[in-house]
Amino acid sequence: MVSNSQTMFSAVSLCHICNEHKEFVAPDNYETCRDGLHSPQCGHGWCVTRERAMATVLFSLFSRDEVKQLTIHDVAPAERGLSYWLYLNAAKLTPTGYFPNKPFGSTVDGLRNENLEKQTFDDQIFDVVTHLDVMEHLFDPFLALSEIYRTLKPGGYCLFTTPTYDNRSKSEQVAFIENGKLRIIGEPEYHGNPQDPEGSLVTWRYGYDLPKLIQERTDFDVEVRRWQSKGVAVMGPMNEVYILRRPNQ
After folding, report:
1. Nearest one of 88, 54, 86 to 72, comparing CA atoms
2. Does residue 202 belong to any structural domain of this protein?
3. 213 by DSSP, 3-state: which?
4. pLDDT of 115-162, one tens digit each?
5. Whole-structure pTM value
6. Residue 138 domain-assigned?
7. Long-range CB contacts (< 8 A, 24+ apart) of 22-27?
8. Considering the domain boundaries, does residue 36 fall inside one?
9. Cα separation of 133 and 30, whole Å?
10. Region at 99 (left for phi over 0; alpha for psi -120 to 50; beta for the rest)
């Protein structure tokens, strides 16, 4: 623990992305940790908490050597963190972005262009599909998850993060396309998008009923993991990783 006004929390933690112990610092040990818990020792591969959470889950399901040989669909990758590790190490990686004015299935800026709600991929081709903070920007996230289910091999996993509000028992859709026009409830909210400098509109605000909604509207069962762990530098709110697995049969 350090006491200066700029850094109130410090811990040496195992980062599951780089597989190294590093010092992580943040202004506090909870509220700022989703985006503010980081390691000053990281270079190009710096990461935020949800990326370490995703890596913690991924490498609990598969060894690092196994991941290198998996067929992986990484949605909207950032040039950092787990996406960067996969880019460097996963031999059968397909990174995708969303460019609505370009042909779907084509390559745009090194990414395959895909609409998650209507994908161009064949059935049962991926071992793992990953996406970080994408679900809250989809108009029909459950259709997108059903499409992911279609593209997963039997036994395959969909792993994702999305902001989940601890004060919400029910999820709420806040943006709609109706008769070809956008309708927004309340004040529009935008989040950063690695493929679009204008950011992405928030369409859903999720509550603790999200696992139930997924089970009701897709063929997936759901497991959720969350942490308050100095050991793996995953702390603070909204760090849940959702684990969806297509059955073997």
Report:
1. 86
2. yes
3. helix
4. 999 999 999 999 999 999 999 999 999 999 999 999 999 999 999 999
5. 0.93
6. yes
7. 22/233, 24/233, 26/235, 26/236
8. no
9. 19
10. beta
